[in-house]
Specification:
about 120 residues; elongated; mainly alpha; Arc Repressor Mutant, subunit A; 2 domains; Tscrpt_reg_HTH_GntR; two-stranded antiparallel ribbon; 5 helices; single chain
């Protein structure tokens, strides 16, 4: 369901993004309406709408007047790139900083990661 550690509208947006990335919502296909999301997730329709509008503002969804919201062409590529950038900023930069503090060379770090697979 929703990640309760973040604001609901962000969790709604992330859930739709996950559906786009895993193929549940195909490019150019409709996504659930504000009211459908609100009923299914048992949240306020305004909150669901805020999550959908966030994705529309980011170019992930497109609004078709009188029809609904649809996954924008190129949304998968855009989402993957943004999440890769976020991953590097949120995880790799701190990892490399800590590794440097511990005297772990990049080669050794790679070996450590390979051993965990």
């Amino acid at each position: 369901m929703l990640d309760e550690t973040k604001p609901l509208y962000l969790a709604v947006a992330e859930q739709i993004e996950d559906g786009i990335l895993d193929g549940t919502h195909q490019e150019d296909a409709p996504v659930p309406s504000t009211n459908e999301l609100a009923a299914f997730l048992r949240i306020n329709p305004a909150t669901a709408g805020k999550g959908l509008n966030l994705l529309a503002d980011a170019g992930v969804l497109v609004k078709r007047r009188g029809v609904g919201m649809f996954v924008a062409p190129g949304a998968i590529t855009r989402l993957r790139q943004r999440r890769r950038d976020d991953f590097a900023r949120d995880y790799l930069v701190p990892l490399l900083r800590e590794a440097a503090h511990l005297g772990i060379e990049p080669r050794e770090l790679t070996e450590m990661m390979e051993a965990l697979q």
